[in-house]
Structure formats: structure tokens, C-alpha cells
Amino acid sequence: MAERDRRRYGYAAYVNGSAAPALPERKEVRRTADPEAVDRTRTDLEVRVLEKRESGRRWAFGHLAVIVLSALSAAALITVYLLQVSNYRTQAAAVSALRKTYQETLQENNLNQNRQEASVDLVKVYAYATEVLGMRLPEKQQVVRYRAAGTEYVSKLGDIPNE
Predict the structure, then answer these.
(1) pLDDT in tens, 120-130
(2) Distance of alpha carbon 40 from alpha carbon 72, whole angstroms
(3) What's the CA gap between 27 and 33, in Å, rounded?
(4) Over the stretch 16-72, which tens digit does the pLDDT of each residue have?
(5) Using an 8 Å Cβ cutoff, are 44 and 28 in contact?
(6) Rounded distance between C-alpha atoms, residue 109 and residue 77, angstroms
(7) Rg (CA), the chain
(8) CB 11: neighbour CB atoms within 10 A?
(9) Read out DSSP for 103-141?
(10) How many Å apart are CA 146 and CA 163, to the nearest integer?
(11) Is the pTM of the predicted complex or chain greater than 0.70?
């Protein structure tokens, strides 16, 4: 029966008086800090395992370097992005302030223009020109009308065309 239990459970027979099976005896293995100090030769499997460990360590360093470089690159990109957003917000605030100043200046300019136009009394100007300066309205033959090319404003820099 013990053989059958050993096969079924993989353990030795039950310990007397206990429901727990007895654990197999462990062989004590002496380990040294230097794996080369062992007198026996290594099997192919052990050599492959050691090679995998070494290549894993090399890969781990390379992997760590890639992760660190990626993190630094991401931090640099985030910093540049945040600076751009800050610069954009600063410029947007400056543009908004300039637009407000422009509107205020435009209103002030229009107000000043209206005041100036309202302050001029055309009747007084006409009376001053005709009475004090001796000016008078032109006769019909003194007025020459012609069309200007492309504009309503004519500067007197040249001769008036005949037709």
C-alpha cells in the first residue's frame, strides 16, 4: 500500500500518527560564490543556461539604456510642448491686449474727428472767405470737369487734359 500511495501522491508513506505525508529527504547541495570552483564538468544544458543568463544581462543593460533614452526623449518633448503652449497663451494674451488698445484708439479717433467736424461752422467759413478775404464762387466757364483714370482723387501735378 505504501508503494501505491507513493505513486499516487509522489511522497513517501505517511508519517506515523499524522495525516500529512512525509516529505522526501533533500540532499544538501553545497554552493560556492564562484561557479568555476566546482570540480565537476558542466553539462551542455548548464552551459546553455549560463550563456542565456549572460546574454540576458547584456540585453537587460541595452533594454535599460533604451528605456532611459526613451524616457529622456519623452521628457524633452513634453517640456518643448509645454513651452510652446505657454508661448502661445502669452502671445494670445498680447494679441488680445493689442486688439483692445486698437479698438479704444479707433473709438477715440472717431470721437475726435466728429468733434473737429462739429466745431467747424461752414457758414462762418463762407462768410470769412467772401467778406474778409474777398473770395467768390467761380463762373461757369472757369470750372473744367474731366474724368480721372481709376480714382476720384486728382493731384495737380500736371496739365489738365483737353478732352
Answers:
(1) 888 888 999 99
(2) 47
(3) 19
(4) 556 666 566 666 655 656 655 554 566 778 878 888 777 766 667 778 888 999 999
(5) no
(6) 47
(7) 52
(8) 14
(9) HHHHHHHHHHHHHHHHH--HHHHHHIIIIIS---PPPGG
(10) 7
(11) no
List, in sequence order, every residue forming a beta bridge with 14; answer none if it has no partner: 21
Contacts of 13 (CB under 8 A, 6+ apart): 2, 5, 6, 21, 22
Q: Which residues of 60-98 are buried (b: 16+ CB within 10 A; e: fewer)?
A: eeeeeeeeeeeeeeeeeeeeeeeeeeeeeeeeeeeeeee
Name the residue with cell 560564490.
33
Q: Are 13 and 22 in contact (CB under 8 A)?
A: yes
C-alpha pair distances (Å), 119 with each of 13, 78, 103, 123: 123, 61, 24, 12
What ranges in 23-160 are assigned the alpha helix state H?
44-119, 122-127
